Amino acid sequence: MFSFAGPQDSFDRAADLRGGDLAGILAGGRVLLVWRGKPLLRGDDLAWLSAGQLPAGASPPMFLGFDGPRDPAAARFAADLPGWSAVDAPPAPGFADATRQVHPDLPAGTAFGELRAVMAALSETDAMLAATARALTGWHATHGCCAACGAATLPAQGGWQRNCPACGAHHFPRTDPVVIMLVLRGNSTLIGRSAAWPAGMYSCLAGFVEPGETIEAAVRREVLEEAGVRVGQVVYVASQPWPFPASLMIGAVAVATSDTITVDETELEDARWISREEMAAVMAGHHADIRAPRRGAIASHLIEGWLADRLPPLHIAG
Ligand SMILES: [Zn+2]
After folding, report:
1. Which residues neighbour ligand 1 (ion) by CB within 5 Å?
2. S-S: 80 plus which of 111, 137, 298, 305, CB 3.0-4.6 Å?
3. Helices (H), 36-191
């Protein structure tokens, strides 16, 4: 499962080696192949390949680092497979894609599958590596041209940079901060759903941090915009990489100072206050019409922390 605010310091990203010759490390390492954002899986686990197993059309491998000592056997890479079309099982639209695609040249038992569906079952390191692989391959796939002059750019630094041969600009993979907040008012929390979500699924409100904003200001603005509720105190709780496509979810707990909900219907289909007792039933899967957020996602972590009294101390109004 993803680490929440964990230091992830057991994995060595080895950024100092990115600019060097990585061929020897790659020869002994393992590669996670990603196709249209879907990692190669074996069951509910990542399927790591040797460099020699990469099929025709795979991108140059991107260096993720070492899972342990700096030995080639511990080296981990990611690669994309941009040109392939899975004719037998086209992916379903939307984030509930349950389809899997089998590539004829890859080991038996492997298939490309949606990361959201398996991430809660992955180890902390594998979840982080899958998130990194998905984010990096997605960035290369969508940033082939220089943002300064429009010329085609080239990958560099083991996949952590793209350089423009025409104007000399360097480009780096982006991480977009998103605030996600457990908004509390007395014994209740504020949940909402967007129309595109599976029926009955509700979660904490969330939104992108805008340029020039603090985390606290973004929390207050988003809750006011989406639900018309005013927020006072905001306390950071934990974070989670969320590579769909390039977000870092910044989890906070926030204290509401008003009750009345006014839903912004361009953002949300519904928002409501839900009591602690009702939320316990949701998380246990017993609620009549509300489904819990996906296990392993930071919203679940925030809600479970609230129900278990594990949140940072707050000055709860009301
Ligand atoms: Zn350029």
Report:
1. 146, 148-149, 151, 164, 166-167, 169
2. 137
3. 115-118, 124-142
